[in-house]
Q: What sequence folds into this?
C-alpha cells in the first residue's frame, strides 16, 4: 500500500514547544501506512512582501507542502492571535497556491483554559483563504496543556482521544478523495 505523506507544521519555534510535542505525539497515532514529517525552517522564511523572489527557505517550505498528501498544524496563541512566524510563512503561498485543495487539520494548544481558540480561529480563516479542504471535525483547541506531557509526548488520555479523532478525520478525508 502506498505511504501517506503528512506534513506537520508547528507554529512555535521553541525547542521544548508543546505544539511540536503534539505533532510528535500525532506521529504515534497514525495508521501504519502513514508518516508525518515536521517541517523545519519556519524561522528562516523572510518577511513576506508581494513581488519578492522565493529564497531557498521559502522554496523548501512550498516544496514540502506540495509533496504532502495532507497537513497538520499545531500552533500556540500569542496576544490572542496566530504567531507572526506562521502567518508570515502562510502568506508566501497565497499567490502560488500550494495549499489549494490540500486536506488539513488544525490544532491549537495553550496552558490557558481557552486552548488558544483565537489563534485557531485565525488559522482556520487563513486556511480558508488558501483554499484548503477541511470539515467540522478538522480542528481542535487543546486547553491546559501544561502538566499533560511526559517524556516528550502527550500523556493525557482525553487529549490523546482528541488528537486521534482529528487524525482519523484527516485520513478519512484522504480516503474520500481517493488519495489512499
Ligand atoms: C508573548 C506571549 C504571549 C502569549 N499570549 C498568549 C495568548 O494570547 N493566549 C494563550 O493561550 N497563550 C498565550 N501565551 C502562552 C503560550 O500559549 C505558551 O507560552 C505556550 O506554551 C506556547 O506554545 P509552545 O509551548 O508550543 O511554544 C503567550 C506566551 C507568550 C510568550
A:
Amino acid at each position: 500500500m502506498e505511504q501517506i505523506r503528512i506534513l506537520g507544521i508547528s507554529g512555535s519555534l521553541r525547542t521544548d514547544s508543546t505544539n511540536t510535542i503534539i505533532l510528535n505525539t500525532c506521529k504515534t497515532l497514525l495508521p501504519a501506512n502513514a508518516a508525518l514529517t515536521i517541517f523545519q525552517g519556519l524561522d528562516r522564511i523572510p518577511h513576506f512582501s508581494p513581488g519578492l523572489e522565493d529564497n531557498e527557505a521559502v522554496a523548501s517550505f512550498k516544496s514540502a507542502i506540495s509533496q504532502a498528501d495532507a497537513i497538520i498544524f499545531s500552533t500556540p496563541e500569542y496576544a490572542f492571535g496566530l504567531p507572526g512566524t506562521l502567518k508570515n510563512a502562510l502568506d508566501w503561498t497565497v499567490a502560488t497556491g500550494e495549499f489549494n485543495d490540500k486536506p488539513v487539520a488544525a490544532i491549537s494548544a495553550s496552558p490557558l483554559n481557552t486552548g488558544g481558540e483565537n489563534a485557531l480561529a485565525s488559522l482556520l480563516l487563513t486556511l480558508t483563504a488558501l483554499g484548503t479542504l477541511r470539515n467540522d471535525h478538522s480542528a481542535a483547541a487543546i486547553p491546559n496543556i501544561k502538566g499533560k506531557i511526559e517524556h516528550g509526548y502527550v500523556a493525557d488520555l482525553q487529549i490523546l482521544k482528541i488528537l486521534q479523532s482529528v487524525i482519523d478525520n484527516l485520513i478519512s478525508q484522504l480516503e474520500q478523495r481517493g488519495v489512499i
